[in-house]
Amino acid sequence: MVGAGLGVWKLMRGVRQLELHRLILALIIFCLLSMAFLAYYVSNSPKIKEAPPLPFSDCGGGGPGVQRAPLFLPQREGLLRQVKAVDNSRTEPVVLVFVESIYSQLGQEIVAILESSRFHYRTEIYCAEYGVGVIGFFKANENSLLSAQLKGFPLFLHSHLGLRDYRINPNAPLLYITKPNQVEQGSLPGDDWTIFQSNHSTYEPVLLASTKSSEALAHFGPSPLRALHATVIQDLGLHDGIQRVLFGNNLNYWLHKLVFVDSIAYLTGKRLCLSLDRHILVDVDDIFVGKEGTRMKVSDVEALLNTQNKLRALVPDFTFNLGFSGKFYHTGTDEEDRGDDMLLQHRMDFWWFPHMWSHMQPHLFHNVSVLAEQMRLNKIFAQEHGIPTDMGYAVAPHHSGVYPVHSQLYEAWKSVWAIKVTSTEEYPHLRPARYRRGFIHNGIQVLPRQTCGLFTHTIFYNEYPGGSKELDKSIRGGELFLTVLLNPISIFMTHLSNYGNDRLGLYTFESLVKFVQCWTNLRLQTLPPVQLAEKYFQIFPEERDPLWQNPCHDKRHKDIWSKEKTCDRLPKFLIIGPQKTGTTALHSFLSLHPAVTSSFPSPTTFEEIQFFSGASYDNGIDWYMDFFPFPSNVSTDFMFEKSANYFDTEVAPKRAAALLPRAKILAVLINPSDRAYSWYQHQRAHQDPAALNNTFHTVVTAGPSAPRDLLALQRRCLNPGLYAPHLERWLQHYQPSQLHIVDGALLRSNPALVMEGIQRFLGVTPIFNYTQALMYDDSKGFWCQRVEGGRAKCLGKSKGRKYPEMSPETRAFLAEYYREHNMELLRLLNRLGQPLPSWLRQELQSTSWS
């Protein structure tokens, strides 16, 4: 039984396995048939396509299918502003594009666009058509070929040469300041020079030199050892119509600088060129001052007179200008005291100017009368010894008090000496010297003063800092020579000790004058200081107005600034206007903050200081700082001032940025049409005849032939509302992060919200709760300060006047007038990432449908 059962079980298992195999096979066949059927159905059924993409329906951004909000910007129907007429004398379409390099990514992209458009973009075409000269430099480097032809030109270059014996070609047409027929003997520095060879008549050598060795030119044929080769050539433009000057090295060699100046003059038709006249004045400070053993003796005074006479043969009427401190008369050795006496014996042979009596720095005197008394002592000394006292020129020891201005010095100078002219090396800064300028303050003309490498301690030739060769290098084409070359007027500072000992002052200026006359055609002249100042400001009238800067930003300035003064009294932010936009309300709101302090009101200019925009700027920063208290905490206190006419005054941004470069700027903007109307009503309230006798519509629509007073009123109504260009002017001097635009309409309707944003922009702490500090006054129609007892303290009657609505006709005219300007403002604010004022959105939406 067991065996039979086992057999049945095996039989049943075999049947079940067979059925399972059949089931799997059936499933596989079914899948294959299904796939075949699906493939047949798909290949033979009609295809259902999705809707094709639609083309862009407008010029907005985004791609297909992107939903675009309707634009509210107005359509431009015509240009409202006058565009400068195209010069029809030339018909060629030319654009000059400046890029860092045509091989940069930007340069390559521009080239690709121009080439794809079939536009020529070669610089040569522009230069030839418009007479633009080219100056090039070919200093050899490791990649320079020994010999090569300049592609496209009949000119060969030979590089990596050592040269000697530089000379000037007298036939070079570009020579103007440079005097020909001079030879600079000896080797030229370096072995990286390039020379030029050509048989074409367009090339004229300017500077020539010979090679150091005959082997140097073996790669382009035999040449005599002392043959001359052009190292600077002038291309007269006969080959391709373009004039060029090509240098075989850079400007490190002094003679190249001289020829470079002539090249600019020649290639610009003398439009970029100074005259040949050069005025020099040599001041000798510290007469009678100095340590024993360093002062002038009788022989030194005789040498001074002898050199002055020799210089007069080269510089008509040349005269040393001596600055004296009488207290130190006869304080040297016996021999030096006799030198003092000899100076006085020949006092009429020199010009004289006062230093301080005791050589004290004027900024240490805070009382004008004490400072003046020091000057009187010096004047009494001068009178007793017959020293002329009417030169009208003075110099302060260490230039103290001249700049930064110490007002007491200027007052004392004028009262005691009737000073008209002074000089300093500190305006605007000592370094770099090329930026030194003049200015006029309190009726005294301040001229730039130059150093010449001679100071009180440089008294021996062999002990000159860096070696005597450094002094000679400065004279022979170096800093001192370039000072005379590049400045029509130069006042040089020297000292008494430079004329004793090795007499380096005499050596320096006699050598300099002779060197200038050997190598240049300059006409050296001199004038007394007052006449020299008159000539200076005739040449540079734009320098009359000073540009006050923060003394604490220059260590040298801070060292010669009164310790009683502090930069902490300067404001951290400005409300710049424009007028009639709510700046007074903003001023009053900010003044409620416990950490914010306003300037004191001005008694003369409607409470505003108006320092950067008016004549008060000439008073200097001492006058300005007197309007601010001393802060109790420098780091947390925020001082500010509000002068609403800063906004559209052209000079205000530059002046403000010079003194307050880190300040933050608040500008309040409202609808310019409303601003214009408010100004008109303001002028009516102040009895302006033009406003009283003309309607607002007449004022804003007046033509150019209207009366002058009417046009003046029109400008003050309309011009400040051209917001974008005024803001752009401020952004030329301040970073966008320093500017905050206040929505004047929102300030009026929700001041608490606006003030919170302003506090965060300024970084004021703690954040003041203006919701509790302000309340709305129904009778005034404005938000006012909430005071004790729940009462409102509002601005005066002159603020928030109610006047008739502007006529629809006038509003429509102004909306059209300002439409393009509001568009410019929109683009500017978008660029700056600043939110759009609510009134601007509304104005653009309304004009877009008109």
Automatic annotation (TrEMBL):
Disulfide bonds join 784-794. Its main location: Golgi. Residues 277-481 form the Heparan sulphate-N-deacetylase deacetylase domain. This is [heparan sulfate]-glucosamine N-sulfotransferase. It comes from Sander lucioperca (Pike-perch). 3'-phosphoadenylyl sulfate binds at residues 678, 783, 799-803. The active site is at residue 580. Pathway: Glycan metabolism; heparin biosynthesis; Glycan metabolism; heparan sulfate biosynthesis. Residues 571-821 form the Sulfotransferase domain. GO terms for molecular function: deacetylase activity; heparan sulfate N-sulfotransferase activity; hydrolase activity. SUPFAM superfamilies: P-loop containing nucleoside triphosphate hydrolases. It is a single-pass type II membrane protein. The chain crosses the membrane at residues 20-42. Its EC number is 2.8.2.8. InterPro entries: Heparan_SO4_deacetylase_dom (IPR021930), HSNSD_N (IPR056793), NST/OST (IPR037359), P-loop_NTPase (IPR027417), Sulfotransferase_dom (IPR000863).
